[in-house]
Amino acid sequence: MALFSPHTSWDCVPGGINNWLVSPYGPGKSRPVTLSTSTIFPGGFSHTITMAGVAVSTEQLQPLLAMPDISVSIDTTAVTISCPKCKLADIISALPTSLVDSVRITAHTLPPIPHTGAGQIIILDTSLTLSQALAITKKHLAMEHIRLAIANGICMDTPVRSIAVCAGSGGSVLAGVKADLIITGEMSHHEVLDFVHAGVSVILADHSNTERGYLRVAKEKLEHLLGPEVNIIVSQVDRDPLQIV
After folding, report:
1. What share of the chain is helix, strand, coil (3-state, %, to 5)?
2. Parallel, antiparallel, or unpaired: how do β-strands 159-169 and 147-149 relate?
3. Across-strand partners of 30?
4. Which of 46, 57, 115, 196 is 20 to 30 A off residue 133, Cα-Cα?
């Protein structure tokens, strides 16, 4: 039997688990709590070497121009070299000694991947009360009972305009998030206290309860992609090991 488990990938991708988790609270503007970054640099170049305000001839740079896997731009007052990190030492060694003192090296950061990342935060077009948000959460996750920590100074009729979610264990992903309500599966006692004292209410639904409902969505996606000749089965007995009794 082959096994493929796209667990964290489904947490982060557009249309994934966290998009599903935040979906029932109404229209609004949503984004990932933390954007994912690409694993590669554009063009494969992680660094830029510049030499500005120096006179240089093409002849002086022939060893550099013959070097593979780099990009060299030359004008009358500057030389710009784009390269991967592994080429830095070779490039410096290939430069005329008269230019070395003018070298400036810039390390690039990996670019973010749009709409992709851990967690989701939504600013609702129309606010809900905390009581309404709680009822919506129970229905969406098919749970009769759920744990709620009400923030200091908040009551069940207090408006909720912003909601941050993280499927599974959201303590680290949601730490420091500014929202009226946090929804996740689990976090530590002290993490809950930090939110409550910061004026943020917290709903904890237990780890896999915040994920399992997405299997219906995944089933529909797979049926569309694979066609009727492939039978997609979702377990009817799987459940979170923790039960409220």
Report:
1. 35, 30, 40
2. unpaired
3. 122
4. 115
